[in-house]
Structure formats: structure tokens, C-alpha cells
Amino acid sequence: MIARRFFYSTLKFSWEDKLIDLFISLEALLIPEKSGTKKDKLAARVALLLGDKYSDGEAEGIILQSYELRNNIVHGTPFKTDPIIETLVEDLSDVVKSVLHVYMEKYPGLNSKQLVSQLKLLSHKRGK
Fold it and tell me: Of 44, 59, 70, 87, which is most buried, counting CB atoms within 10 Å of its CB?
């Protein structure tokens, strides 16, 4: 499902649909928990996975901004459409693609619970 939803996001013309598919892909990979807030967990876990590729806070910032936009769409909250939004969605797509690449390269075969356990160990090693 993770790869399929990422693939679907590449076929979408609507940035809203693309955004939702990208988050479904990320959540399926990085959020095995059934409770708690997803936004901060996603941002922290993506930052750990992509620490070598993105500068400090860059990937985390993309996740946080995009997730807020996702919430507005899902909950029907009005928001101002801005041309920058499409750039943000493209940045999110790049982040998700990078996350999938790191997962396949460094953590192949791990399910989401196992991956999160590995990321928690990595976080402790880095002192975060």
C-alpha cells in the first residue's frame, strides 16, 4: 500500500488528492500506533530518516506545513489557495520519495512497528 499510494500521488492532477495520497503513504510506513498525534511523530521520524539528505529542520518543516494543509482539507477548514501550496506539495513528494528510498536501502523488510523501533534506537544514539 505504501508504494501504491505514492505511485497514485504521481498520477493525480489535483494537488489536494496528491497531498492526501502522500500522507497515506507516509502514515502507513511511519505510524503503527493507533493513538496520539500523527503530525509531530511524522515530522520527527522523517527528520531522523533524512538527516543526511536535508538540512536541519528542512524535511521536518515540510512535513509540519503540509500536515496542517492536509488537516484543512480533511476537516473542511477554509484556507486561502496560494501558488506556493503546489510547490509545498512537490517538496512533500520529494520528501516521501526520499523516505521510501532510505527505507528500502537501510531497513528493507521491516514492518512499520519494527521500523519505528529502529528509529527510536537511532534517536537515542543521536541524543534526540
Answer: 59
